[in-house]
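Morning - nicotinamide-adenine-dinucleotide inputs below, output right after.
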Amino acid sequence: MTLNPSFAHDEVVADSVSPQTFREAMSKMGAAVNIVTSDGPAGKVGFAATAVCSVTDTPPTLLVCLNRSASVFNAVMENRTLCVNVLSSGHDRLSNLFGGKTPVEERFAAASWHRGASGAPVLDDAVVSFDCVVTESMDVGTHRVLFCSVLQVSNGDEAEALIYFKRGYHRVGMAAAV
Ligand SMILES: NC(=O)c1ccc[n+]([C@@H]2O[C@H](COP(=O)([O-])OP(=O)(O)OC[C@H]3O[C@@H](n4cnc5c(N)ncnc54)[C@H](O)[C@@H]3O)[C@@H](O)[C@H]2O)c1
Ligand SMILES: Cc1cc2c(cc1C)N(C[C@H](O)[C@H](O)[C@H](O)COP(=O)(O)O)c1[nH]c(=O)[nH]c(=O)c1N2
């Protein structure tokens, strides 16, 4: 396919890569697994997320991509606060609980939490947690991209992190020798 720079984005996307092909390709992009929590006027919620990344350190900002059809969507948007809890290697069961159709109380009952500056639940034994306020957002396709200003960082002492790769959980710890 040759791309003409004058094409609009939608025209290029229409007949190119299918969602299935995209997902298959994305399954090969290993990513940290996070539980994103939120609390506030709309109540306590949380979901598993791999679509999280750093935007800029000035001001410290993360982005989180949230499917607008998720049961947690309205609550996160109303609360406008969230905490990105980076999971450690023993958290695969917790990730599945927060990634499925499990009721909210059952999700949170499976781990220990404390409150962050924003009021969102911070996972006690996370590798690291980023407590945030949602400052901006933008809809792209099925998802809302949330730009999150970091209020507070909590460092844990977990040695190994959880990575999602080829639809399965993997643990990483020691750096590879170079
Ligand atoms: N970014 C996301 O929204 C996202 C990411 C991972 C998993 N999931 C959810 O978990 C389920 C199982 O995922 P899986 O990895 O075992 O198999 P899968 O084949 O459904 O997905 C493979 C990869 O594609 C990407 N992906 C999946 N659904 C997506 C979506 N709606 N929008 C953008 N990217 C998406 C993710 O990187 C995922 O790891 C998915 O069907 C989805 O509901 C969603
Ligand atoms: C490993 C892994 C990674 C992700 C997810 C799942 C799993 C298992 N899910 C899906 C998300 O967690 C799920 O939609 C929510 O838990 C909401 O589910 P309910 O609508 O409450 O059943 C997810 N959803 C999302 O909007 N953005 C994301 O980055 C991810 N990443």
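Note: The first helix runs from residue 9 to 14.

O.
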